[in-house]
Amino acid sequence: MSRPAVVFGDVHGNSVALGKLVKMVRERFGAEVDIYSLGDLVDRGPDSKGVIDICVREGVRGILGNHELWFRYVCRGGTAGDDVWSRIMGGSSTYESYHVGFYERQRLVEAIPEAHKDFILNLPPYRVIDVGMRSFLLVHTGMSATTVAKLRRAVSEARPGVVVEDIEFVDALYKTRPEEFFWVGANVRAGDVAEFEGFTQIFGHTPQKQVVQTPYFIALDTGCATCPPYKLSAAVLHEDGTIEILTF
Hints:
248 residues, alpha/beta, Purple Acid Phosphatase, chain A, domain 2, five-stranded mixed β-sheet, 10 strands, 17% strand
């Protein structure tokens, strides 16, 4: 890749913050720069529809967050369960942004534009991107060091002497432990974040008071539309290997 890439954390329906970020990125880097989402675009905040509008219009390349899972199910024609309407999930805000009320829940699939459905249904569970000489793993919750160690032990016992690429552990967790992959993940405060040789992890999901950046991971969720400091944070990955943090 011959240009920087921009990765942003959890948005949760805050289209104003996302609009400011995208405007700044386009003014600085132009229309061809790739912008990536770490998931949790919807729920809680006031304008999930507006957030998806921006992503579709700007060609944002996202990954699935846990809050996209129920929304993807609805895009396929299903009806969300009552847990979506809980305070902690905040799905009612997403319904309201599409002008659908509590007693009209089966209407949501009809209210979602086809372009929005296509965007959500084509989100992968994770991505690996290359910028300059560095590779980055984009995953919603982050890979736990404890979990990766268990996976490595299991592989070494089952396939002694076999060298397994790091990405295989990511794929194995997605396929075998989806609850952990989308809902639990790395515990930054406890220092339980996996360190990989091949790539730097970038993830969101668990709000931090500020962006946490180390040589092997970046945690980008700073509580946008959810909790203090109520900010949207992003990382600009430059071709020379430097990383710039932006907060809105």
